[in-house]
Amino acid sequence: MSHEVMAKHSKSFSLAARLLPPASRDAFATVYAYCRHVDDAIDLAPHDERPAALAKLRAELDELYSGRSTEPFAAVVRAYRIPRLYAEELIEGMAMDVARTQYRTLDDLLRYCWRVAGVVGLMLCHVMGVRDPSALRNAAHLGIAMQLTNICRDVAEDERDGRRYIPPNHGVADMLDEADRYYRSADAGLLALSFRCALAVRAARLIYAAIGGELRRRGCDPYRGRAVVSTPKKLLLVLLALVLTIAELPRRLLLRRAPAAPDRTLGFPHDVVPI
Question: Block means of pLDDT (10 residues each) for the chain, length 275 residues?
């Protein structure tokens, strides 16, 4: 079921997930499905019902972390020791949408991106067996970069829902530049992943960044239709990801992985920004 949710809502993530080792694939899809559930619970609810939907998500979270839940995400939480803080922050990101938060500065927007996407990268660090504590920050940066890309792509759609994320005195080009900074930081953490996980994450990163490239080709005009990456181009980017990941093999073989996952939970902003 989790794989079906991912295939329906994100062809890019679904494609990348196929590159993961089997041991990580199902858990990856389960984390994605839970995050999608949280997002849809707010986005698909009528405006006047969103506060109640938010309260329900918080109650669900209590149950998921109670140790009694039989939900798939609860099983992943227990198996991979995903900190509750990350799921709490995800829901707080939804609370910002419910409250129609005004993003007056870039720092305000980065907090939102951390909550709705940076913490997802950190959840997936647990699933993919990251051992290097310094790589956690890079994973959060990848989530932030992807969310900035989403925001630029979805300006018109968000406006129809009464949302505006890009701060005053900034534009789509500024946000894409900021996303590129975070993508570059994310690249530095890929060596902390196994070969298959690095391949999958790099493929997703290249495909998402290509959405920004498409927006730039349109003059950074988000009103000219939804920017998408064609299937042939996605496959070429997967091939590029493979070439780049193979090129890293000599460096990867020299690295010594720590015996256990880092016992560290990142917080915003001191562990995340600035780059």
Answer: 75 89 94 97 96 98 97 97 97 97 97 98 96 95 98 96 95 98 97 96 97 97 94 97 97 82 91 91
CATH superfamily of 2-254: Farnesyl Diphosphate Synthase (1.10.600.10)
Give residue limits of the domains in the chain.
2-254
SS (H, E, C) the chain: CHHHHHHHHCHHHHHHHCCCCHHHHHHHHHHHHHHHHHHHHHHCCCHHHHHHHHHHHHHHHHHHCCCCCCCHHHHHHHHHCCCHHHHHHHHHHHHHHHCCCCCCCHHHHHHHHHHHHHHHHHHHHHHCCCCCCHHHHHHHHHHHHHHHHHHHHCHHHHHHCCCCCCCCCCCHHHHHHHHHHHHHHHHCCHHHCCHHHHHHHHHHHHHHHHHHHHHHHCCCCCCCCCCCCCHHHHHHHHHHHHHHHHHCHHHHHHCCCCCCCCCCCCCCCCCCCCC
pTM value? 0.96
